[in-house]
Amino acid sequence: ASMLTHKDLDWLPHGINRNVFKPVDRMFARSGWGVRDDEVVIGCVMSNQERKHWSTVMEAVARMKEQPRFWIHTDRLLGYWDINALACEYDLADRVIYENRPLKDAEMAMRYSACDATVIISGGEGFCYPVAESLACGTPCVTGAYGAQLELTLEGVKPVTTRLETSHNARRAVYDAVAVSAALSHAVANGDREREEEKVAHLKWEHVGLEWRRWFRKGLEAK
Q1: Residue 40: which pLDDT band, with cuts at 50, 70 and 90?
Q2: Which of 5, 46, 47, 139 has a CA that sits 20 to 30 A from residue 80's CA?
Q3: 16-50: b or e for each residue (b if 16 or more CB lie within 10 Å)?
Q4: Does this model's pTM top 0.70?
Q5: Three-state SS annotation for 120-151
C-alpha cells in the first residue's frame, strides 16, 4: 500500500500483465472441458514437487459437498507425487481435468476465469504467481496463511503446525485438509469477482513498472 508514496523502497513486488490476466467469459474454457455453467469447478496450478501439498489439496476437493470438477495444471503428472494415483486414492479420477502441457498466459487466464475458486497449498511461498493470476481474473484463491501469498489474498487457512525440512532447515507449514475444504466451499459461495480483482490492482505493470525503472536507474547511477 505504501509503494506509490514511499521515497526509497528496498523491496518491490512482481507485476502482473493485467491486459492478459483479466476476467474472460467462463464458458470459453468450460465448453472445451465439457463442463456445464452450473457445475462447480476448482482449479489448482502447482508444480509436482515435495513442497506443494498435492495430497492435502486432493483430499480437500474430495471432501467438498459440491462435488466439483477439478482442473489441474502442473508440469508433470508423475514426479514427487503420482497425481493420477492421488486422484484414484481420493475417488476423484472421473472429475479431474488434467493439463500438464505448457499454456500461454491468455490460455491460463481463460482457465482461471472458468473456475469458481482455485487452491494453492504448500509448505511456503515467496510470491506465488498462480494466486495473483487467479485473483486478477476475478477468481478467489484459497491458500495457506504461512507465506508471502497471504499478502495477496488477505486471508488464508491457518497451518496446524510447521516443521523444519531439507538440509537448509527450511521451515514449512502443514495444513488440515478439512479446513482447506471448508475454505473452498466458502469461497465458492461468497466469491465476488470485482473484490478479488481489486486485491491485485496494485500489481499492474503500469504502476509497478515505474518503481522498477527507478530502482534500475538508481543502481546504474550508483558509484
Answers
A1: very high
A2: 139
A3: bbbebbbbbebeebbeeeebeeeebbbbbbbbbee
A4: yes
A5: ECECCCCCCHHHHHHHHCCCCEEEECCCCCHH
